[in-house]
Write a structure and sequence with these properties.
Elements lengths: L2 H4 L7 E5 L3 E5 L12 E5 L2 E12 L2 E11 L12 H7 L11 H7 L17 H4 L2 E3 L5 H4 L9 E4 L3 H7 L20 E3 L38 E3 L2 E6 L6 E5 L8 E8 L2 E5 L7 H4 L8 E2 L5 E2 L5 H16 L8 E5 L4 H6 L10
Parallel strand pairs: 5-6, 6-7, 7-8, 13-16
Antiparallel strand pairs: 1-4, 2-3, 4-5, 9-10, 10-11, 11-12, 12-13, 14-15
Organism: Lasiosphaeris hirsuta
Pfam family, one: Lactamase_B
GO molecular function: hydrolase activity; metal ion binding
Length: 353
């Protein structure tokens, strides 16, 4: 059955793009048949997802909005990274951090597809952001979590273990900050049954939510479970109303997830994180590059290149196929698509996609 025909509720979210800093990528490390000298400065995009809800009080039902961020981009202060992270960042210069995600929320982008605001900050990161979902915890997506003092953080299974202990010689613990996320306000999504990583050594293990948790999650949390949907093996209905789906997207880094947002009756936005770093890979014009891993072998920018390719195949099939039903539009946006950013500035907050 086509997905669209299963979704009878008219619950939509609004998605706005946010600047989260920039970094510079050498093309030869990311795509095949690359110019060995070419380097491109690209964005690390964040996204604001606004979900409508109804709260019941003594005065009756009232409408409210849940503000959710997907990814936080680059840290505002590079000194907040570990020494090993800073050594890596030195190879990604130039790196820009202004505006970062928090500044983008406060200021917005002039010329967006909404009326100009002149009433001070648009959104206060410390007070107005309810939830943060991280596609994964690489340095250019982790941002500055302390800016979001009242937010609950949701991450892929195994992420907290990865931050503390790393995951083997290519992902040592010094490439991560153990105290990056507020433990009392962080929850991992459930483990994915039959993980594609199988019984491989040094896979980060799931961390249960603390009994003393201060997380504030939608009621649907109690029913979270991974189910197949539209060709994706593991999908979670985040709010329980089919307005926002978390999609297990293995390959790039342990715990990597994507979002599928329903923004209209027959219109969806797929936020692909780091499934690939160049849209030409997604559409089959290029392939994922392999390079010397410094340990006598070859690797790609993904922890499991085969799994990353299968995830891309699923996305491509999803967009091009009939699983969503006829007449359904799906827009895919990857985190580092500089061309998309330049062509869509009017869709940045306080505008929308």
């Amino acid at each position: 059955m086509a997905v669209a025909s299963q979704m009878s509720q008219a619950v939509f979210v609004t998605v706005s793009a946010l600047d989260g800093g920039h970094l510079t990528l050498p093309e030869r490390l990311f795509v095949t048949d690359a110019d060995p000298e070419k380097r491109a400065t690209v964005p690390s995009l964040s996204f604001l997802v606004q979900h409508p809800s109804t709260q019941t009080s003594s005065g009756g039902d009232r409408k409210s909005t849940t503000n959710l961020l997907f990814d936080l981009g680059v840290k505002r202060d590079i000194q907040g990274y570990t020494g090993a992270q800073q050594a890596h960042i030195a190879q990604r210069q130039p790196v820009t951090t202004d505006p970062d995600c928090a500044a983008s929320l406060r200021r917005g982008v002039a010329g967006s597809n909404t009326e100009e605001h002149d009433r001070g900050p648009l959104l206060d990161p410390a007070k107005d952001i309810d939830l943060v979902i991280l596609s994964h915890v690489h340095w250019d997506h982790i941002g500055t979590p302390s800016d979001f003092a009242s937010a609950t953080f949701a991450v892929g299974s195994g992420t907290l273990d990865l931050l503390k202990n790393g995951a083997g010689p290519l992902y040592p613990a010094e490439l991560f900050n153990d105290d990056e996320l507020p433990r009392s306000r962080t929850v991992e999504f459930p483990p994915v049954p039959g993980s594609i990583y199988g019984a491989a050594l040094q896979i980060p293990q799931h961390t249960a939510t603390l009994l003393s948790t201060q997380t504030k999650l939608p009621p649907s949390t109690q029913e979270w479970s991974w189910r197949p949907l539209a060709g994706f093996p593991a999908v979670l209905d985040f709010f329980g109303d089919q307005s926002l789906f978390v999609i297990d997207s293995p390959g790039h880094l342990y715990g990597h997830v994507n979002l599928l947002a329903r923004v209209g009756e027959r219109r969806y936005i797929y936020l692909g994180g780091d499934c690939c770093h160049d849209p030409r890979i997604l559409w089959g014009e290029k392939d994922i590059a392999l390079y010397d891993d410094g340990k006598g072998g070859v690797r790609s920018v993904h922890v499991d290149t085969g799994a990353a390719k299968r995830t891309l195949d699923q996305i491509r099939s999803f967009v091009n196929g009939e699983s969503m039903g006829k007449g359904v539009e799906v827009e895919v946006v990857m985190a580092h698509d500089g061309v998309w950013r330049e062509q869509n500035r009017h869709r940045f907050w306080p505008g929308n996609m």
